[in-house]
Specification:
The termini are far apart. This protein has helices at residues 2-20, 26-55, 64-87, 90-113, 125-141, 143-146, 151-179. With 184 residues, the protein is mainly α.
């Protein structure tokens, strides 16, 4: 249930941030920030339940991984694209969404290639969520400070750059792991 809720909350959060647009609706910025955090909380709870079921041998659904990952990617995109529109830079929001999705794709690619899932880097999902939360909360509580300083735009730039760094680091780790001689 929480898996579906996390994507729904991210979409509502994105809608709130888009509606806040020029900063005239401080409560919508705050709502967007709080919903982005509730999305991360739902994701954490989903992961804990999946881990518990896997540990007890009760996790038999082959589609479980898909149902766990796909809503996360949708909510990542909704959150960052919404922030891009709210910032007045929808292409930067799109770029941040693509870069964020690449970090998850690269992590998963490591697991599929036999190198194990790679979780390193400076911009994993919790950090992205914390940045968006801080940005939205700041714009809601202190719009006269945050909006003239282009905090949403700067936040998206940080997410883009950090996600690229994270993707590159994960790819390097995957390559190092796969380049090791087979111990057989």
């Amino acid at each position: 249930m929480c898996i579906r809720d996390s994507s729904r909350k991210a979409c509502f959060g994105a809608t709130s941030m888009v509606s806040a647009g020029g900063g005239s609706h401080a409560s919508l910025w705050v709502a967007g920030g709080l919903l982005s955090q509730s999305r991360l909380l739902c994701n954490l709870l989903d992961g804990m339940v999946a881990g518990e079921l896997r540990g007890k041998g009760e996790y038999h659904n082959k589609m479980g991984h898909v149902y766990n990952e796909l809503p996360d990617r949708v909510s990542d995109a909704a959150m960052l694209i919404g922030l891009g529109y709210a910032a007045g830079h929808p292409l930067l929001g799109d770029a941040a969404a693509v870069a964020a999705i690449m970090t998850a794709y690269t992590r998963s690619l490591g697991g599929e290639s036999g190198a194990g899932q790679q979780f390193g880097g400076i911009m994993p999902k919790p950090v992205r969520g914390a940045l968006v939360f801080g940005c939205a909360l700041g714009c809601g509580l202190a719009p006269s400070v945050c909006l003239p300083m282009h905090v949403p735009t700067v936040t998206l730039g940080i997410v883009c750059a950090g996600s690229v760094q994270t993707t590159v680091l994960r790819l390097q780790r995957i390559q190092r792991t796969l380049d090791r001689p087979d111990p057989r």
